[in-house]
Amino acid sequence: MTLRTETDKETGVALVTLDRPERLNAIDLATADELAGVWRAFRFDDDVRAVVVTGAGGRAFCTGLDRDVEVPQPSSPYTIDDPLIAIGPKANDLWKPVIAAVEGMACGGAFYLLGESEFVVASEEATFFDPHTTYGMVSAYEAIHMAQRMPFGEVARMSLMGTAERVTARRAYETGLVSEVTEPGGAVAAAVRAAGVIASYPTEAVQGTVRAVWSAKEAARAQALAHAPQLIALGNLPVERQAELFRGRRRGSGEFRLR
């Protein structure tokens, strides 16, 4: 198992933990399947009234798709096979509130989870970045998810700067990506406290409010996501070239600047 779940039946809060710290909680195919299964199971579990999602180990919340995963792609430029497409709660029709608790790095495919959470709590040591352009890949789903939370210029900058720049938790708070910044190591506890408050309220009112908030932007979001497959299929470098760029960055200094 690459995922841990714990439910406090007294408070109604479930804690979902990505448990691949040795891989900085990168998501492989097994983890992707487990996440989808957990979200769908929560729909039927009345003991779960609010959820916190986080990553194990403290070094990373999630670093996106595991680079060792090989995903064969269709030859058509109008479609892609995205292994992360269904890792989020909304993609699995879960409308119970989900709070993301971020310690360490959150990058790339992590934004699928952050983008489908109601809000994000982050430790002051957390950082956010999107490496796609650095490795010759289109940031489509990730940028679209973040555009629901951050001003246009901030999303564009983070998406285009790639690995050269990391957004600090404080800057993420200032731009609206993060709703609360905690002391180091305090993100999960703060998120669980908030989830406990929400879970204590009448379930129907909470879930109705979640749906109302999402309905305010759902049309624009759905329309934008519909364009993502073609943009990725047309704009991504061949997988072999992406791998070369990735290996080159690993051999390099790995320097970046915080903002």
Describe the overall structure.
By secondary structure, the chain is an alpha/beta fold. The protein has a single domain, classed as 2-enoyl-CoA Hydratase, Chain A, domain 1, CATH 3.90.226.10. Helix content is 39%, strand content 18%. The protein is built from 9 helices and 11 strands. The strands form 2 sheets. A 6-stranded mixed sheet has the order 1-2-3-5-7-10, sandwiched between helices. The mean pLDDT is 92. This is Enoyl-CoA hydratase/isomerase family protein. Belongs to the enoyl-CoA hydratase/isomerase family. It comes from Streptomyces sp. 900116325.
Rounded to an integer in angstroms, the radius of gyration calculated over CA atoms is 18 Å
Secondary-structure arrangement, i.e. CATH architecture: Alpha-Beta Complex
Number of strands: 11
Total tally of structural domains: 1
- Strands ordered across the widest β-sheet: 1-2-3-5-7-10
Question: Class, according to the CATH hierarchy?
Answer: Alpha Beta
* CATH topology descriptor: 2-enoyl-CoA Hydratase, Chain A, domain 1
How far apart are the first and last residues' alpha carbons, in Å? 36 Å
**Secondary-structure element pattern, one letter each:** EEHEEEEHEEHHEHEHHHHE
Main β-sheet, in a few words?
6 strands, mixed
Output the CATH homologous superfamily: 2-enoyl-CoA Hydratase, Chain A, domain 1
Pfam families: ECH_1 (PF00378)
InterPro entries: ClpP/crotonase-like_dom_sf, Enoyl-CoA_hydra/iso
Family: Belongs to the enoyl-CoA hydratase/isomerase family.
Organism: Streptomyces sp. 900116325
